[in-house]
Records
---
Amino acid sequence: MTIDQELRQELLERAARDHAVREELAAQGLLEGGYHPRMRAVHEENADFLAAVLDSRGWPGAALAGADGAEAAWRILQHSIGRPALQRRGLVLLERARDDGQAPAWQPAYLLDRIRFFEGLPQVYGTQFEPGEDGLPAPCPIEDPANVDERRRSVGLGTLAELTRSMRAGNRPGPVSPEYRREFAAWLRETGWRG
């Protein structure tokens, strides 16, 4: 299969726009207060595009979109947080791509953890973090935490301690407010992550 350069470029540009908007909002201190409308708009637009790609082409793995384009597709899917059905569908396709050598094993691991976090279930690989009581990033609950590093190694990730140190380096967003928690719970219901 020949790489579709047009698709690859579109995926890269969309992921870059997501990153640029996130950086701009973060620099202005606008990401801590909830799901900013500009960020949400980028995620929704990208989710629409990716859903159309999945419908017409299947998962845009490395053979179709190049390794960097496939990673951009994963990033777009990872950020499609307002679309539970798309993330769940994408996980199945991404796991197949992993099994076919078209995606690295860490990508579906991250997506699985994200889905489980939004569903209110313990994560498997320890990739999802929230501010702890001290305001520093802390791993969200983990299923079978004693064996998390073994699972992380199996998908090519470093230890949870290494990730935690990296996440905490220079990052002190502060504790999550009760108001934010209420808004987040409402958003989870609104989007269909939780009943």
---
Amino acid sequence: MTDAPHTLVLPRARPAIANMIAVASGKGGVGKTWLAITLAQALAGAGRRVLLFDGDLGLANVDIQLGLAPKLDLGTVIERGLPLDRAIAPTPGGFDVVAGRSGSGSLATVGGPRLRALADDLAAVAPRYDHTIVDLGAGIERTVRQLAAWCAMCLVVTTDEPTALTDAYAYIKLAAADDRRRDLRVVVNMASSPAEGERTYGTLLKACKSFLKLAPPLAGIVRRDARVKDSIRAQTPTLTRYPTTAAAIDVEAIARRLIAGK
């Protein structure tokens, strides 16, 4: 695993918001959005007040996976200068959501002033909830990292694919460069077994220790589960459609650890 190329460090415009959790990945296809949705529902099922914010400004798809057709989305809020809470909508999963604009890359180039205004809006809304989960876009672009900088914790999702591991390492490298104190944790998704998930995490951890002098802890391992794909196709959360399936149980375990502060 090679070191990531140097990229300009971003200043943090405001302190991180304590109850905000970013869900990130270095690349697409690792189940990041599915994890964000399932974690939101798992936390809500445990009695927590949860807001899921679709922060994929390029290719939002939380609404698609949930089968929602929101009256207002994040794109409308940004374009019209509306308060963010106008776009908050309840879901059948027991949590609230701010949907992005699916199928449009137009928000990926949102400028710094509007992003800062959005951060102010999120800071005002977040205290209404126990947890605000931000589903970031895949990659390490400027807007992704600025959104992540608002969150006190970041769950970096990876799989055992070599490219997923390399890109997760690159994300951790740049996130740590932006702020060395950031609470970065790893979720291994689509693991063939818990033991395989531990090995995948060990590979990433070794690279982080060797090159970055960092040891991001393991937030959890989610087993590969064919019912996940079926629930996504059905536009129904996995915890609703298959509440006792392996992947759902694994995400609930991650939620319990987060609630316990572990």
